[in-house]
Amino acid sequence: MRSVRTAAVGGIIASLAALLQACGPGQPPAPPPPEVPVIDLTPRTAPIVREWVGATFGAADVQVRARVTGVVEQMHFTEGSLVKEGALLYSIDANELDQRVAAARAELAEAETRLAKAEADLARYRPLAAMDAVSQRDLEEAVANEGAARGAVDAARAGLSVAQINRGYAEVRAPIAGYIGLSEARVGDLVGPASKSLLNTISRIDPIRVRFGISEREYLNFARQSGTPRTTELPQTPPLELILADGTVHPYPGRVLTIQRQVEATTGSLTIEAEFPNPTLLIRPGQFGRVRAEVEEREGAILVPQRAVRELQGQYQALVLAADDTVEVRGITVGPRIGSDWLVESGLKAGDRLVLAGTQRLRGGMKVVPKPAGAPPAGTPADGAAGP
Fold it and tell me: Is the pTM of this model over 0.70?
């Protein structure tokens, strides 16, 4: 009896399970392949533009130093202003220098007195020697005394000239015209050549110079294109642009002025100095900027939008579509940026269908539906058509 009940309960449970399975939902259908925007790659001519970070400095940065020892008595300029060439900048106490000038004048006067006596003695001995009234030795001694006295006068005059020059150094004047900086010495400071104390620096900033470095590879490429110069003249270089710290472009193009003779072994770069007109005096020494130049014009270049390139651990990849509309992951080598595009050195070719968007969610081998870039998505009415 018990076994009959057990069998009946088991049959009911089995029936309920079969009924529930029959009434349950079925397996969901597979999602359709995603739509992705694509473009056909076509080669074109592209200007290759390079940028280098540089620092500005004056066309002439002259340090002003004291050439005599003394105490600064007065400053005759406004710090940070424009000064003219020859303008008086500093006055140094000249009392000791004045005394040296006076002593040099006294020595010259004494030497000239001795010379006058020596000349008078020689003039008296010559006729006497001709009459044999004095010995030849006395005449020779008079000639020697006159020559020594004349040499002493020349030395005294040179000493006076040096003393006067040093006296002039007590007035420190601007060696060039330009902007003068903040003074390193103040009134009351002891300055002099022995202490090597810097008084100030004057910069001529029109034109302004920019120093930057190019890589050894860039140098070799440029040298092969322009040819190694065999004369003292620099090779022809493209005009340069200077991009300032705020992103604006300096309105005056520049030119290469000098090229360092050797490549720096520590950095592998070659230092270049360029010159830019600066009539408005906007650019000051010590600013940073980017020097830009078009180094070449490449034919048949492959350019792809930056958003279509993804980077993974320093490697660049792009997604292209095979003939059966499956995704293929390509490793590519990128060159310089041109606007919002990458110049692709290798990995892509003309005619490839490049995926523009959604690259992060796509994987190799996935089936997709290509859509020309810029076309409306599926279900969107065309221009002028009414919506559903």
Answer: no
